[in-house]
Specification:
The structure holds two protein chains of two kinds. Chain A is α/β, with parallel strands linked by helices. Chain A has helices at 21-31, 55-69, 95-112, 133-153, 178-186, 199-205, 210-216, 246-255, 267-270, 276-296, and strands at residues 2-6, 35-39, 72-77, 117-120, 157-161, 193-198, 220-224, 261-264. An eight-stranded parallel sheet of chain A has the order 7-6-5-4-3-2-1-8. The longest helix of chain A is centred in the middle third of the chain and has 21 residues, at 133-153. The N and C termini of chain A lie close together (12 Å). The model of chain A has no long low-confidence stretch (mean pLDDT 94). In chain B, helix 4 (136-156) links the parallel strand 4 (120-123) and strand 5. In chain B, helix 1 (24-34) packs parallel to helix 2 and helix 4 (136-156) packs across helix 5. The longest helix of chain B is centred in the last third of the chain and has 28 residues, at 279-306. Chain B is globular. The mean pLDDT of chain B is 93. The chains are: A alpha/beta, B alpha/beta. Chain A binds chain B through residues 14-15, 229, 231-232, 234-236, 239-243, 247, 268-269, 272-275, 277-278, 281-282, 285, 288-289, 292, and chain B through 14-15, 235-236, 238-240, 243-246, 250-251, 272-273, 276-278, 280-281, 284-285, 288, 291-292, 295.
């Protein structure tokens, strides 16, 4: 298992615009990280250089910088629809076309960067039959089959993520539980379609994440690591302001033989810090705490 | 204005390792090592039977704490008196065994504050639910009756009492709490008509009630004698450090403290940053918090330069 962090560790700033990808990579490396998770989610907010016309040139520069710095990209996060598929967010009629284009770019760049697993959010049927596992699986196969085809062509696997338990107005979201996520992933009958477990989302659903992790077992190929108190998705650094039982989780990861990245997704711990110095200090702390967590995962 | 922290920065320990609750002298040593020269003596854990101040030899413990602080060059400017757990919802005498114990702990905390040189001991106003619901006159009377002897004892020990703005809607039974808004707090403090009674403003509590805390702070003005500095997103009292997962407008509020002539300290109450950490990371995170605090102070100083 390798410690990693999302490139979003440095991207959002309290009092200035979005940090560029290459600067984010350099600061992650300086904090100690050799493995990164390339985050394409901000493209749907018009952020990162990948929304510009010269996105491919940027991708080459990112790849060259990664090689020079000795950084590997084990995971990426593809853009996701924030609401309920297939409804356009209100007041944004071009959203679906943009989502398709940004996803296409994210897949191509993931392939260029050597990403093994691109993480995607499963959707729940909102306009059709609600709260039907069969209907939700059908919807996800319909929505994701073209994306999976693109990914496999680019040499990238697809990891479906366990999702937050509730998103208004839906009271229950498909794939918030391990059983639903497994049913979805297994329906593709392809070893290149597997699971990303988000421990923050998991902590909102489960008192103990041991049983769902054991159920997921060898399907687990990617992770999102962050803490919260179970009430909302706070995206904090493990052990700070949260109540996740990391000692238990790290033991289970060892037990199920997880070998992928242990990818911090802790942007809320640093997003609002007011100076670059404080952000760098927070990133270094994050690396040290992440390294400590890995030390707990010994068979 | 100086940067300060509650001694609770090192109180609780994850999985009770190495000990369930860190000894006060050890807390002081580690606060000092993180960079803090000023501390807030937190007596709240006494109600859970924690700290050496619950023991019969509490005076000896107090002497030990005073000696350690003097050796370390630490100053106590604030303290936090014990909080009665259900004074909102039930009668004072609802627990006949606990109530006298609580009053004894409060007495010790007040005397302890005086011994340690504390200027302002922070106290929680309570909400009367015995006689009526949401009757501010009843709550005011209850607080005056309950706190008058405590204020007198505090004055005898050279300590002032600073009443804190409350967290709203904390318990299902009480949807609105007395003194969660500035005008109720002012009403309470002014009713004492005593310069030894003032206000402690808790920015975390304030953020759960106010979209913008500026007007509240301006109303309080010179009554402000103490602070609790913590961050949250307005949904619940998460007690993280400023700028960590919150929505408080520190750039606006820190200079405002200088502008209204606040002369007390900027006191962290950010135990969630360290409570759940393995012990080996606590000192580093405390140091990180100290750096955040220094930045907050620099914002407050900007207010001084502007005015």
């Amino acid at each position: 298992m390798k410690l990693s962090t999302s490139t979003n560790l440095f991207s959002v700033n309290r009092n200035k615009p979005y940090t560029g990808t290459i600067e984010s990579m350099m600061r992650c490396k300086k904090a100690g990280f050799d493995n990164l998770d390339m985050n394409f989610c901000p493209t749907m907010r018009g952020q990162t250089e990948f929304v510009t016309d010269n996105w491919k040139q940027v991708a080459y520069e990112v790849r060259n910088t990664a090689e020079r710095l000795g950084i590997a990209f084990g995971q990426s996060h593809l853009p996701f629809h924030p609401g309920h598929m297939p409804v356009n967010p209100i007041g944004d009629p071009g959203y679906m076309e943009r989502l398709q284009e940004m996803t296409r770019r994210a897949v191509i760049v993931s392939g260029m960067l050597g990403v093994k697993w691109a993480v995607v959010h499963p959707y729940a049927s909102f306009t059709g039959k609600m709260y039907s596992v069969e209907e939700d699986i059908r919807l996800n196969i319909e929505q994701f089959s073209p994306v999976i085809e693109q990914c496999l062509k680019a040499g990238v696997g697809v990891a479906f993520e366990n999702i937050l338990g509730m998103k208004e107005p839906m009271r229950r979201r498909f794939s918030a539980t391990a059983e639903e996520l497994i049913a979805l992933v297994d329906s593709f009958h392809d070893p290149r379609v597997q699971i990303c477990w988000d421990f923050g989302h998991g902590n909102r659903m489960y008192d103990s994440q041991a049983r769902p992790l054991r159920l997921v077992g060898s399907r687990l190929k990617a992770t999102h690591v962050d803490d919260n108190r179970g009430n909302y998705d706070a995206h904090l650094l493990p052990f700070i302001g949260g109540n996740t039982n990391w000692e238990e989780i790290m033991g289970v990861l060892a037990e199920i033989g997880y070998e992928g990245d242990f990818a911090l997704e802790i942007q809320k711990f640093v997003n609002d810090l007011p100076t670059d110095e404080l952000k760098d200090e927070a990133a270094r702390l994050s690396f040290e705490i992440g390294s400590y967590l890995l030390s707990l995962s010994v068979k | 204005m100086r940067l300060s922290t509650s001694t609770n920065l090192f109180g609780e320990n994850r999985n009770k390792i190495p000990v369930p609750y860190t000894d006060t002298v050890e807390c002081l040593r580690r606060c000092k090592a993180a960079g803090f020269d000023v501390v807030d003596m937190n007596f709240c854990p006494m109600r859970r039977g924690l700290t050496n101040f619950v023991r019969d030899d509490w005076m000896e413990s107090l002497s030990r704490v005073k000696e350690a602080a003097d050796e370390l060059g630490l100053t106590f400017s604030q303290s936090h008196l014990p909080i009665y757990p259900d004074l909102n919802a039930g009668p004072l005498e609802s627990d006949p065994a606990f109530y006298p114990l609580f009053m004894e702990y409060t007495r010790r905390a007040v005397i302890g504050s005086g011994t340690l040189g504390v200027k302002w001991a922070v106290a929680h106003p309570y909400t009367d639910t015995r006689n009526s619901q949401y009757d501010n006159a009843a709550s005011l009377k209850m607080n005056l009756d309950f706190y008058r002897p405590i204020v007198e004892l505090a004055k005898e020990n050279g300590v002032g009492i600073a009443f804190e703005n409350m967290l709203e809607n904390q318990q299902p039974a009480v949807k609105r709490r007395f003194c969660s808004v500035a005008d109720e707090l002012i009403h309470l403090v002014d009713a004492f008509n005593d310069p030894a009674v003032g206000v402690c403003w808790d920015f975390g509590h304030g953020n759960t009630v106010y979209a913008d805390q500026e007007l509240a702070l301006r109303m309080i003005g010179k009554r402000l004698k103490a602070t609790h500095v913590a961050e949250n997103k307005g949904a619940y009292d998460s007690h993280t450090a400023p700028f960590v997962e919150g929505s408080v407008n520190w750039e606006k509020l820190m200079p405002l403290l200088t502008e209204i002539g606040y002369e007390g300290d900027l006191t962290f109450e950010i135990q969630s940053m360290t409570n759940h950490l393995p012990d080996l990371f606590k000192d580093k995170v405390a140091r990180f918090c100290f750096h955040i605090g220094q930045y907050c102070l620099s914002l407050a100083e900007e207010g001084g330069r502007r005015s």
